[in-house]
Amino acid sequence: MSEQNDPFLQVLDRYAAAVGDKDVEGFLSIYGEDVHIFDVWDTWSLQGKAAWRDVVSDWFSSPEKLVVTIDEARSTSSTDLVVGHAFIRYAAISPDGRELRSVGNRLTQVLRKTDASWSISHEHSSVPIDHSSTRAIFRRATAV
Amino acid sequence: MSEQNDPFLQVLDRYAAAVGDKDVEGFLSIYGEDVHIFDVWDTWSLQGKAAWRDVVSDWFSSPEKLVVTIDEARSTSSTDLVVGHAFIRYAAISPDGRELRSVGNRLTQVLRKTDASWSISHEHSSVPIDHSSTRAIFRRATAV
What we know:
homodimer; globular; Nuclear Transport Factor 2, Chain: A
């Protein structure tokens, strides 16, 4: 499937663009009203766009520029359901263009087609845990 | 959808039974040959049943009895694609029946229908990370 026709890749493009612009409403426009989220941070699960808006508004209030990079995006589709997974890297950039820090995530998204457009109905993002130390691993061994 | 007709609930039942029996081949029988896994532990991703067999064989070699409990399982389906998510709790039980320890996970599974049967094509399991301490959170605030 070409990128032009893959709803997952199209959603990832809109995701990355909205994060780069810190555009809360543009970001939320790719999510369904009743979205269910297993987010990497703090909470076991979130339900509904209002709860997600609170998290995203807080995230986008940071002073640094945010840059999203996607790697190894793969999707599988049916008529009205698409599932994709990818590696995603979030970098914080200073006003003078230096990368201050970054974190990698694994990302799974489920898209449903409603009214001829696709929106995210379920999202699961995480980092793996080192079994011996029980500490989070924020970077892949290979570069994202 | 009744449990009898929901492929996700059927797969979860087989998952829990195989863990309880420490039945490596029974457990692997619910996964597709080319399964892609974002596991909670150690690795950023795994691809293929052979890689997953190594992880599962090691897991099932523990001396304690393992008990799986599922909560809040929800699924969405299309003709040949089902996606489900749930909370899952793993408890280690001593030979005299005491619970030695437990850990909770968030679980997302993608099932594909091939040759009239369903198998897992993608699995994502994780725990959330506390943002201030960057430590893993292994228990839900509410009991699983």
